[in-house]
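[agent] plan:
  1. take the single chain provided in the ticket
  2. run structure prediction with default settings
  3. attach structure tokens to the ticket
  4. add a short note for the reviewer (M.T.)
[agent] executing step 1
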Amino acid sequence: MEFNKLIGFLGILKKSIKIMSKNGKLLAIVTSIYLMIASFFFVWNMSTIKPIIFDFSTKAVQITSLDPRGLPFAKDLASILKDIKVLLGIELAFLLALFLTSLFAQTAIILLTEVSYKNKKISSNDLIVGVPRSSTRLFITTFHVALLRVGYIFFGYIMIMVPMIMFYGHKIVSKWILWVLMIFLVSLYLYFSVVWLMSLVISVLEECSGIEALGKAGKLVKGNKLEGFSLNLMFNLIAYVFFDVLLKRSTLIQSELTQAFVRFFLMSCICLIVVFELQAYTVFYFECKKSHGDEIELQGSVEYSKLSNVPFVIGEDLP
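[agent] step 2 finished; step 3 output follows
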């Protein structure tokens, strides 16, 4: 039974691929815009900060050999502080632009997957009207999820540092403990992420956000967390392979233009993974609702997952 749930994500993936054609044109447009904008901002950010970081590093090395009371020291220090301000400004602008792009694109993808799952069509006007309202709820839930992730990272840091300090000087023991803890913490993170990701879908499809969406997500995935865990594991492994391989390749390339193309392709791949993950989790949302006996309104019909929840009236209501 547990094994069936563990590989049950394959059915979710199959259904996610199957429903893509329902609103395929709109989905392709939204995905293309998302990929282009996010990848452009990523390449622009990397290209812009590279000379600033190089200049900052050079001056930081030079300043150590200068007299703190001299004019050259003061000039280099002022230049370093200016570089830091410029770098922070660029990074803030990049993160804000990427966040807003992702927020609207992810909302649109979840809404498109919802209507496709229900075998319905949606016009571009209806999608444009629905995205801003749902994006507000998604923003609130994303903020709460971000806080939980930061808290988990802090918890993981403490979990790793305590045994490292306790077994300081025992290299072999420390290495084994580190590997075991890393596997445990990553697995636990993927397990918790089932609720976190589901809360994002719920905040778009239902009139709730934040703590309420997280609470609903926890109840909805009850009994189906292994399927969600398998989805998370698969998508994170794919993302890691793309990121690790392409990033290492890009560092070996000398041409700036080729590096930019590789980075653009890398970001596009990651965005595609995010798109398909959101589609899969939206399908997973409906599958969880069906497993709890909720009805799903399809085009021209209503699908029930548990007949035992449907009342049968016999005798007195018959003509």
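[agent] step 4 note for reviewer: The mean pLDDT is 83.
[agent] ticket updated
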